[in-house]
Amino acid sequence: MVNTRLLEQAISDSGMTMVAIAKKSGISRETLYNKLRGVSEFKASEISNLSKVLRLSTGERDSIFFSSEMWIIFNKKQAEGGEDE
């Protein structure tokens, strides 16, 4: 689950317009708005491109795009010796 509040803050802090961010990220403006509204999820390539455009640190990227619940589930599977499917 995306933390849209943090993503919107990163976008605001960048000083770029949504159109510029979308263009530099290779995402259409409409698609970016839909993803911010939760209509669809971000693809890995979009997360990577947005992280570069917004100059996000690894920690910032993870806080925005990867919920703590996801990390709890992943870490639990790893501790149990399971693998992601």
Largest sheet entry: none
Going by helix content, strand content and strand pairing, the class is: mainly alpha
Which percent range fits the helix content? 55-70%
Distance separating the two termini? 18 Å
The chain-level mean pLDDT equals: 86
Number of DSSP strand runs: 0
SSE pattern: HHHHHH
Radius of gyration: 14 Å
Per-chain topology:
Blueprint: H1 4-14, H2 18-25, H3 29-36, H4 44-53, H5 58-65, H6 68-79
Helix pairs in contact: 2-3, 2-4
What does this entry show, briefly?
This protein has 85 residues and is mostly helical. It has helices at residues 4-14, 18-25, 29-36, 44-53, 58-65, 68-79.
Describe this structure in words.
With 85 residues, the protein is mainly alpha-helical. The protein is built from 6 helices and no strands. Helix 2 (18-25) packs across helix 3 and helix 2 packs across helix 4 (44-53). The mean pLDDT is 86.
Supply the key terms.
single chain; 85 residues; mainly alpha; 6 helices; 67% helix
